[in-house]
Amino acid sequence: MLARAMLRISSSPVGVSAPVGRGVFRGPTSSSPSVGTRSNDAPKQKLTSFSTQVFGARRRCLHTSLYAMISADTAPTEVTPQPKHVSLVQGASRGIGFEMVRQLLEMPDAGLPGRPNAANGHVVATCRDPAGSLALTELLKKHPTRLSVVKLDVEKTESIAAAAEFVKKKLGRVDVLCQTAAVLHVKSGSFSMAPETSIARLDEHAMMKSYRVNAMGPTLVAKHFADLLTNGTKLSLAGSEEGSGDGETKNTGKHAIVANLSARVSSLGDNKLGGWHSYRASKSALNQLTVNCAIEFARKKFPVTFILLHPGTVDTALSEPFKKNVPPENLFSAERAASQLLKIIGEKTQEHTGTFVDWADTEVRW
After folding, report:
1. Band of the pLDDT at 219, cuts 50, 70, 90?
2. Which of 111, 147, 162, 259 suits a disulfide with 143, CB 3.0-4.6 Å?
């Protein structure tokens, strides 16, 4: 019956419309019969006009009911309360990024000292293929109300924009943004790339991919999440005033922070070996772009802190081909690296914006 009613509506000459999202309905069009039209067959015309009005009204009522049903099915059943803290990890499907997500959810203080609201806050984990990450799927089962897993590919601007729009609608803020995704070597079908030991090994496609993933991607994420970050600062500062004991009120909130994972090989002053042209250059570009953001966002009404972190050599897929030459004491597990970096992120304030430190919180030369 519903299908027949929908068919009648779709084939009806009556000018009824219900634009999606508006519920606006229009009456008969100028081509529809109207009451009072004179003709040689007036009674028949009146009957036809009357029938048109009656069945037109019934169609409009049914159309209205159908629209209401569709709206009810697609609209959220409940409004998600805005959390007091949102941490987002970009590049969260494995390695350091995944460990950051896990610790943000499971550590008593979320691993972020100095940000007490993070302990009960919401965590957003982004990656290129959420469905393909079994680890994130299992984590989501354990923390269904505090974790959102969102598709974000730093090589696709529309994916970044869509992720930002999702977070804006669902959560409305970002307080901590950790960007961990990076590329150093690839073997995929006909395309492959590896750190170059000589300029003779340079490949333009590999260089462009390095720049897109390691430098441009994180900067475009900062661009599209800018309003969410400044709103994080605004809400944090507004919601954290407390008495100082002398009758005055002081603000204990923290500015939102963006932590971009760089690498010591990005340093010009520390470069004594050469090689790794694409990776070095892309991370040096990330450093420059991050400092630019630190300067720009410091001027905003609600500033955002930007820092660069060198995680050390970590036992992940990124470093797999090279870790054999690393002394065991200098090869960190992803769990340890994530813990060290989160601690630094939690302790940093706006006065540290634009700085570059390693896993031990020691300054890295530019």
Report:
1. very high
2. 147
